[in-house]
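#structure-requests
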Amino acid sequence: MLDDLQHCTRARYEICIDPTASRNLFERPDNDGFGTITWNPQLRSELEDGCGSDPAGHVMRDPVASLLHEIVHAAHDCAGLDAGEYELEAVRVENIYRRAAGLCPRHGYGDDRLPLEPTKGCAPARCDCSAAGASTAQRMPRPAAVPHRAADSQATPDEIGGADPAR
């Protein structure tokens, strides 16, 4: 994925570290041909309730997982896809890292849930490797339609009036 981005002919992508950003964000390339990932490596807020089989646990932001999520958006953009339409795919890739790092996996993005089929009940201390129930929800790829639209971390509670959609 990183090699594809490095050799992308559609655009160039840069990562801007901003320790004051309240969310991580991917902005599609503008007329200058540069896309931007704004990344706050200090952001460690709660994404969602429930950690694996522990309903009292929490899925927390992880700096590397968050950056990887935004890089997936850049890779989708480079491929000509509307990155905002692929939030669940970015979460799936993020979860690969989360499992490898012993972190709680995400269950979705906002109100959109990952299908149960590719998920396992994993938590940092334990991983249930039995097959989960099946789901057939899938999205078909579609070309990018909007020239400059952000695929970003969902708004903070202050930005949307109290609800905290996962990101």
